[in-house]
Amino acid sequence: MEAAATRGAAIFLREAPLGATSFAMTAATINPREAAHFGALAADWWNPKGSSAMLHRLNPVRLAYIRDQIDAHWHVDARERHPLQGRRALDVGCGAGLLAEPLARLGAAVTGVDAAPENIAAAREHAAGQGLAITYFAGELTSLPPQTFDLVTAMEVIEHVADPAAFVAGLAARLAGDGLMILSTPNRTAASKLLLVEAAERIGAVPRGTHDWDAFLKPEELTALLEGAGLKVVDRTGLSPSPARGFKLGGSEALNYLIAARHA
C-alpha cells in the first residue's frame, strides 16, 4: 500500500507513507495486519500535510527515477511528455494512487492493486475527480485479469509482505517480455533502524507499528530474489534525505534504495 506514514527523520513514508503500498499482493503474501494498518490511513492519503506528508515530498524524487529508467529502457527522448503512451503500467500496493496518477499522466494505461479496500475506494474517488481513467482492484495480485504490463512498480511494499520471494515471483509473472520493473524499499541497516523505525515512531512522524526492521531487505538480498524470479537488475540507487530538497537520489543506500530490473 503506498504506505502512509513518514519514514524516518528522514522519514520515508511507505507509500502509504512511502509508498505505503499495499502489502501482500498474492494469496500467499498478503499480510492482513499490514493491510488493515494502512487501510485505516486511507482517508488521509491525499492530504499533503497529513499522515502522508512525507510521502508527498518523496513522490517527486521517485518519479524522477522512474522517468529516467523509462527513458533509458525504451530509448525515449527526455523531452517527451508522454513516454508511456501506448504502454500498460501496474502499480502494486498502490495505496490511494499517489504514484498511479502520475503514471497515467505520463500516458500509461494504469492498473493499481492494493490489499486494503479502503485505499482502493479512496483511489477511485480521487482519480475520478482528476478525470483519470485508472483501473483499480482490491485484493491479491492474482485477482487481476490475466495480462502482462510494460511497467511494474511496487514502492515500499516488499518489506510488508508475508513471503517476499513469492511476491517477487508474482511481480515477474506480470512483467511483459520487454518490460521494466521498479521497486523501492528500506535497507536493513543500523541507520534505518534508528531513523526509520525508532526515531520516526517516537516523534510521531510514522504511525506506530508501520515498520518491522527485521523485514527490511538488503540490496543483495532483493537482487537475489529478483534473479531467482528470472530477472536481471539493470540499475540501483540510494534514496536519502537532503537538507536542501528533502530527498535526493544517489549516494548512500543506508536508509532506502530503488532498484530497476528486466527479464534476464
UniProtKB/TrEMBL annotation:
It holds the Pfam family Methyltransf_23. It comes from the Bacteria. HAMAP family: UbiG (MF_00472). This is Ubiquinone biosynthesis O-methyltransferase. S-adenosyl-L-methionine binds at residues 62, 93, 114, 155. One of its GO terms (molecular function) is 3-demethylubiquinol 3-O-methyltransferase activity. InterPro entries: SAM-dependent_MTases_sf (IPR029063), UbiG_MeTrfase (IPR010233). Its EC number is 2.1.1.222, 2.1.1.64. O-methyltransferase that catalyzes the 2 O-methylation steps in the ubiquinone biosynthetic pathway. Pathway: Cofactor biosynthesis; ubiquinone biosynthesis. The keyword Ribosomal protein does not apply. It comes from Sphingopyxis flava. Signal peptide: none annotated.
